[in-house]
Amino acid sequence: MVTEVASCTFDRLELDSGATLAPVEVAYETYGELNGARSNAILIVHAFSGDAHAAGEGGWWSSMIGPGKAFDTDKYFVLCSNVLGGCRGTTGPGCINPETGCPWAMSFPQVTIADMVRLQRMLIDHLGIDKLLTVSGGSMGGMQALEWAVSYPERVASAIPIATTARHSAQQIAFNEVGRQAIMADPDWNNGNYYGGRLPGRGLAVARMVGHITYMSDESMREKFGRKLRTPDQFEVESYLKYRGYKFVDRFDANSYIYITRAMDTFDLTQRGALPTLFESNEARFLLISFTSDWLYPPYQSLEIVKALRGRNCDVAYCNLDARYGHDSFLVEVEQQTEVVRGFLASTFREAAANA
Predict the structure, then answer these.
(1) Is 233 a catalytic residue?
(2) Annotated catalytic residue: which of 186, 253, 294, 328?
(3) What domains lie within the chain, and their CATH numbers?
(4) What is the mean pLDDT of residues 323-335?
(5) Catalytic status, residue 327
(6) CA distance to 158, 159, 287, 306, 310, per residue, from 317 (Å)
């Protein structure tokens, strides 16, 4: 598997807020090789806490990306970039504001899912790719896949949104707000101006603990932890959550947490019209996947999108996979996903080649 770790800088990016970022940098990785026709490119878009390192050792979706896997790098050219507002090489609140010489912190302009996708489109243009074979991701990645299909339908042959939604429910917004409040309540947050000093690690760790609970299912937590004790005065699940929370502090920026969750909460395709009308003339193929035990992004939200697509006679397949691990199923229960995605991609590639 050929891997490239790279970044590129663009002069400017106009945001939905009316603000302009100038310049803006995007970090990305690629796997596999682009064919002569440039027709085998797949964009993987990551979930909230992910980054550009999607495959290979330590890659967040290495179970799905690689030789012979669902996104087969022997056949396809796979790329993934860190999102706008992130903290792993793409411009975000922890980066230096060129006008002040100091980190942006909370003066960073608010970003949207559409802004993230706009920057991805600029990257695709930079790489000389006219049309993606597919764009795929789970959770927030699924939102980006939908945004691609709505905003740039001519640039995608297909989309694979997984465990996602066209807009957050009140419950989903509520969980994100608890995380944001935990960060802002940390005395070390300092209104976001903590760079060079003590990090708001306690608040960010608590935010991650809350989020991690929502990613799992009751069954998977019961199976993994039950009521087992780690020490005489601490349950195993308590120890696990603390470990996950403080590990997260080592790799993620608290301000990015605030900005990215806000982008997720404000994402709402229906603000541009009824869902069916958004896919009025869309010729892309769609594969939507949900999981039976996912209570954070429950199957009914995927079904709303499927219904809208079918209402406009779009080419759409839907699979609600039986899974035990809740929202995290798209990361850990890959056997069924692999078979479904592999077949969908193969038929999409054949169809694209026939129509070329």
Answers:
(1) no
(2) 294
(3) 3-168+269-355 (3.40.50.1820), 171-265 (1.10.1740.110)
(4) 96
(5) yes
(6) 11, 11, 5, 8, 9
